Amino acid sequence: MEYGAWRVKPIDRTTGDRREEEMNMSMAEVLMDPVLPGAQLEPVPSWSPSTCREGRVLVVEDDDEMRSLIEEMLLEEGYRTVGAADTFAALIELLGEGADVVVTDWKMPVMDGLDLLASIRRSVPGLPVIFITAHADDELRDLALAHGAASFLAKPFRRAELLAHVRAALAGAPSPARC
Prior knowledge:
The chain is α/β, with parallel strands linked by helices. The protein contains six helices and eight strands, in the order ββαββαβαβαβαβα. It has helices spanning about 25-30, 65-75, 85-95, 115-125, 140-145, 160-170, and strands at about 5-10, 25, 40-45, 55-60, 80-85, 100-105, 130-135, 150-155. The strands form two sheets. The chain has a five-stranded parallel beta sheet, with helices on both faces. Strands 2-1-3 form a three-stranded antiparallel beta sheet. α3 runs parallel beside α4 (about 115-125).
């Protein structure tokens, strides 16, 4: 997956209007620029799922054993996986190779999963993000879904549940969490 420049139409902070000029920025600049919230972003090219059936799944989990277990479940099912131990490593991976779906823990050092989701929504708006967490409750699930998560899984979860959520996210269908 290639990432080129991103066309950005910033908002004039004094009037609230979109400025007419467009800036071309790299994805790294878009992700790290604190003054861009509300700006109109247009990826060049836009995100689209891989053409291969398996899909590439980015697993973001700070617990090494849990990350390995999730990756193993996905690999056994024929998905291509890559792991990241923290949100910063996940963003670097997205800048490089990209992903078709992200499976991320909620509680992590430095940036939590919601911060990661916000960065992904600014830079790769259509990329499905599935949350997994041991700190699950209805309020947290509703917050994740309201911010654009594709679905939400409580730990411990069954292999079949994870696979159903990933399949739904890759297919663009409503996730099992929303049904």
